Amino acid sequence: MYLAKYIAKRLFWGIVTTLIVLFITFWLIRLLKIEVPLDKVAAQIQEQRREALGYNKPILVQFWRWISHLVRGDWGTSYFIEKLVPVSDIIKRRLVPTVTINIYSEVLIIPLGILLGIFAATKKNKWQDHVINTGVMMFMTVPSFVMCFLWMYILCYRLGWFPMQIYSLSESGGWFTGKMLYSMVPGILALTLGNIASLARQVRAELTDQIEADYMLLARAKGLTYRQAIYKHSLKNAFIPIFPGIIAGFLGLFAGSFFVENIFGIPGIGKLTLQALNTYDYDVFMSCEAFYGIIGMLATIIYDISFGIIDPRIKMGAR
Amino acid sequence: MKRYLAILLALVLCFTLLAGCKTNTDDGKTSPTPTEPGGIDPADTTGFNDPKFYTYNDYLPSFGVDWNPHTWTLDVESTILDYLSSGLYAFKFNDDQTAAELYPLAAAADPIDVTSKLTADQKAKYGIPASATDSYAWQYPLNQDAAFEDGTAITAQLYADSLELLLDPARANGRAMEQRVGEAPIAGADGYYNQGKISKVAAVDDSDTVNNKVYLSYTNAITWWGDTWQSAYNSYYSGGYPEYFTSSDGVDLYKKWGDFVAANGGWDGGYFLLEGDALKEFETDWTEVCLAVGGGYEGEWKEFVFISGQDFTDPKYSDFGNVGIIVDDEYTVTFVYGKKVTLFNAKYYQTSTWLVHPALYEQYSKLEGELLTTSYMTGVDSSISYGPYTLKSYEPDKEMLFVRNETWFGYTDAAHLGMYQADQIRIRQIAEQSTALLSFLKGELDTATLVATDLVEYGTSDYLQVMPNTYLYRVFYDLGLADLQALDKNGDANSNTVALTNKSFRLALSVAIDRNEYTKITNRVPAFAMMNDLYTYDYEGEMADGARYRYRDLDIAKEAILNIYDIKYGAGTEYPTLDIAVDSVTGYDPALAAELFKTAFEELSAGAASTGFDPSKPVHILIGFSPSSISPTALASQNELNRAFAAAAAGSGFAGVEFEFVVDSDRYTAVTDGRLAASIGAVGGARQDPWGISRAFLDASYSIYLGSNIPNDQLELTYDWDENPATPDETIKQSLYEWYVALTDTYFEASIDLKGFLLASLESYYLKQGYTTALESGVDTALTSIRVSYPIDEYDPIIGFGGLPYAKFSLDDTEWTAYIAQNTVNGSLQYK
Asked: How does pLDDT run across B549-563, given as a tens digit for each residue?
């Protein structure tokens, strides 16, 4: 009961926040000035088209029209990216490559991040820990776009192991073929290494705290080996704050990455958002923003309630 | 221990990086053996019957949104359309590949002039002179083999149906512009497109308002200021000149008439019709203002209003039958043009297509808001080809794949032997130029454009292609004192922009710039005048005999350049001949710049009381810059300009002279409405029409920004205007706009000497006044693949290097893969 009330409350405020953010975004993108051609006839035609599409109506009227359509499932129509194609169709299509590459990444991030974190924690202050920590710091501090260019330059250009851009469907035969996976490797690496480092660091920190906790002494005193004590007790406790992040991270699969998608030619949702902004395709941009807003809201709620699922002693919403 | 481990880890990381940076030396790979450009015989094994398979790998930074011939807007969209369509005529090389020629493609032969066959009724219907006997109506025989890939024959009726769709006012098709206005407009097309409307134009003089409706508008530029009422009011009223808007009894007239409009129905599309008593009262109000602060002549008040231009409300404009297209028979169509069109232009303006597949076009049409629009030619299903290739697959944002259109009539005629060797065209979307270049160097692409910094490595490459164009990149200014004063006062980074009102200052800016240095940064070529040497006054002549008939080669045009930069030639001067003198022009004269800055400072200081110039502050001008041009190059070019200005202005008295580039997507309007004092922009025209480019600078109905009232400057010219040596030369003084009309209309059929004189005079006057600062001309550079060659090495302004139709492959796809594997060194094929 507490949980249901809590979720309802979080949903309500999430929706309100999302609406406010969407309105501000809606207003801001319309403040961006459209490039007007020097040629008056061309400028006149451009204006005529904008007028006909209702872009000159008051901002509140436009927003109401857009949001009321959105609620009814009509995400609008693209004019400058895929002309007259429903935005929902575009987003659905663009989600496939985004989710694909993110799934490949998560498959690497989660086990490697956890294993490295555990290994570093169990070898705290030994050389193995230092090696891992140095790598973690390096991959966490280098910005993702630098990583993208670095991998592209080294793996794709100098070593020539991979194509510069991911293959097209006509070359690979589909999103889930071995050939497509091969061409995605540099992008996956760019997405993965920073996140592995981040997860390893978190696991190490949490596990280190648990290993040093008093109950570990008791566990050892009961006769458990060091390894048994870690796997039966410390690890479980350490995962209470880590696991919700991993669950929420799965929702992040849909979010895409501006840099990775643009640099490696992945026609996903991140690239779409940037393109919508560049071409002033209002419906597409706003729908992407709404999509991100909803994903973000759900991720936060899931993150919160998953604490209660992992550890039943934690009752979300209870006083 | 920790220290050793850290060192060990660092070494491991360094080793990993070095692995990527390893340099291959002698590893047994063969040296690249480039093909000889242009060395392939068309009769050889190349061409579309070649059993080998060739893929041309291209890229575009964006695919645009549609390649519909009625709505495309970007060059990339036009490129895509070219693969899928065939114009009535097209360019190809002549037999010995020394020049381009026009040949019939979707047409069967050259058009025939049938103007004399038009009846009096037809001439009246199409609005062409009753006395016209030639050059208005051209009959085109159509190629009966031409058809869409679904078998739909391309008939005369299809052209008529396509034109009707193109001009449909409910669709607001952008490409309709070319058939409505310009050098070869279809008669009645503009009327049909504008049916039911009344166009409004800013009144220029007293006579303008006779028999016209009079409109008030606050948001469109009027003649008086060359600006909008709104921006002029904001500038003048708050800038210390309220008398421009105040009646003798102290009423704020801007506010009064704004309130009047609001109380009487409000603005209708930005205009308000003044009539009856309101018109009389308006006249009284503004006559009073004009007498106080204006020129003081009767009727001057009319320069504050707009008048109805052409009235398209007559029902005849809604009748497509009045548009100049006549279906003579199934495969013969006549176009009646709204103005005289030469045989060459009758072909040239039909090289681009507006033909559509009407059934498919309608199938993809949809009403969005009040706009009837279509997604025709936006994807595989909505595209249909009648050109050499067809769209096989399309992944938005990723790839377009074209394959041969086996039904294309061009593959079975004799006109294209040896052409179109590429069996397949793969176009990837690669937004980053640097990524595209790396892909090219790896052999994944067959071409890549270069930027300035790339030329350090590839500037002498055998595979470099240099492609100049007609674009002039220039700084243009707001010269209105009140606007500039307002900018200086409003607290942003602008200061002393009022300096731009001083002619010496503007000229000093121009000659202070070392354009050779500047263009090393931007990878373009220096521009010293409004037009570069690509503009030709006899396009057809150039194609026929390969000679140059360039405006810039005319003596009068050369003298114009010397006049702009005050360079003398002849006996007793540094330059004995005109050509030597012209060759010496760099547009850079630091000594003259220093002198002009000094003069400007003295003049501005003397007039400081009236202009607000503050000698203690630097001149700092925000310059509008296109968002699409943001790059490190932009910053470097800004710095180079400022370096040049600082050097020239040192010791002049100015506390500094600086430009600061600011991004503004609406930079033309920003200068018009006083938000910015200056902007940088490109302007270019059709290279076969040197006379027409002047409209970009002088025709208010065409260009958004013309500077404050520049077209109304009076210019006096003396010439033998009737071109009769028996009569004396005549001196005429009229506005620049009127001279522009004379050039493009009155003297349209005059000799090249007369037109050259007139254009050179306008060009010289414009730059001598410092109305714009010419910086550079456009040029593109690209590398082309080792395996691809073209018939010519030097860029031909008409046909380029020949393009894809002439691309010759020395290696097919399989051989190319093997070549790459064998010849890649350090990740790259050798193009340096």
From this structure: 999 999 999 999 999
Q: Is residue B685 part of a domain?
A: yes
Task: Give the one of B177, B375, B444 whose C-beta lies nearest to A83's C-beta.
Answer: B375
Residue among B20, B395, B428 whose CB faces A169 most closely:
B395
Nearest CA in chain A to B666: A35
B704 and B810 inside one domain? no
SS3 sequence of chain A: CHHHHHHHHHHHHHHHHHHHHHHHHHHHHHHCCCCCCCEHHHHHHHHHHHHHCCCCCCHHHHHHHHHHHHHCCCCCECCCCCCCCEHHHHHHHHHHHHHHHHHHHHHHHHHHHHHHHHHHHHCCCCHHHHHHHHHHHHHHHCCHHHHHHHHHHHHHHHCCCCCCCCCCHHHHCCCCCHHHHHHHHHHHHHHHHHHHHHHHHHHHHHHHHHHCCHHHHHHHHCCCCHHHHHHHHHHHHHHHHHHHHHHHHHHHHHCCCHHHHHHCCCCCHHHHHHHHHHHCCHHHHHHHHHHHHHHHHHHHHHHHHHHHHHCCCCCCCCC
CATH number of B177's domain: 3.90.76.10
* Residues B652 and B790 grouped into a single domain: no
The answer to whether residues B618 and B706 belong to one domain is: yes
For residue B733, give how far its alpha carbon lies from the nearest alpha carbon of chain A (Å): 28
Residue B40, pLDDT > 50, answer no
Does residue B19 fall inside a structural domain?
Answer: no
Q: Considering only CB atoms, which chain B residues are within 8 Å of A163?
A: 444
Residues B54-71 pLDDT 10s: 999 999 988 888 899 999
- Say if residue A288's pLDDT is above 80: yes
Q: Select from A46, A83, A147 the residue whose CB has the most chain B CBs within 10 Å, as the one to mutate to test that interface.
A: A83
Q: Does B94 reside within a domain? A: no
Residues B731, B832 within the same domain: no
Mean pLDDT of B313-325: 93
Q: CB–CB of B665 and A267 under 8 A?
A: no
Closest by Cα among B173, B155, B152 to B164: B173
Residue among B369, B681, B702 whose CB faces A53 most closely: B369
Point out the residue among B180, B370, B430 whose CB comes nearest to the CB of A165: B430
Residue-wise pLDDT tens digits, B96-129: 887 788 999 999 999 999 999 999 999 999 999 9
Do the Cβ atoms of B666 and A35 come within 8 Å? yes
In a domain, B142, yes or no: yes
Place of tokens 């492609």: B467
User: Could you tell me if B693 and B554 lie in one domain?
Assistant: yes
Q: Which amino acid is at B259?
A: D
How many structural domains are present in chain B?
A: 4
Q: Which domain holds residue B134?
A: 102-194+319-357
Q: ipTM for the complex?
A: 0.80
Asked if A33 lies within 8 A of B703 by C-beta distance, the reply is no
Domain A91-310 sits in which CATH superfamily?
Answer: MetI-like (1.10.3720.10)
Q: Are residues B433 and B520 in the same domain?
A: no
Residue B23: closest C-alpha in chain A: A158
Q: What is the pLDDT of residues B788-821, one digit of tens each?
A: 999 988 888 788 899 999 999 999 999 999 999 9
Q: Tell me which chain A residues have a C-beta less than 8 angstroms from the C-beta of B396.
A: 81-82, 90, 267
Annotated domain spans of chain A? 91-310
pLDDT in tens, A87-125: 999 999 998 999 899 889 888 998 999 999 988 888 888
Give B762-793 pLDDT, tens digit per residue: 999 999 999 999 999 988 899 999 999 999 88
Q: Which of A53, A82, A130 sits opposite B371 (nearest CB)?
A: A53
A125-152: average pLDDT: 86
Q: Are residues B764 and B802 in the same domain?
A: no
For A36, the closest of B430, B668, B826 (CB atoms) is B668
Which chain A residue lies closest to B821 (C-alpha atoms)? A160
Nearest CA in chain B to A272: B397
Same structural domain, B336 and B427 = no
pLDDT above 60 for B46: no
Contact flag B703-A35 (C-beta cutoff 8 Å) = no
- Contact residues, chain B, for A51 at CB < 8 Å: 370
Contact B668/A38, CB-based, under 8 Å? yes
Better pLDDT: B745 or A208: A208
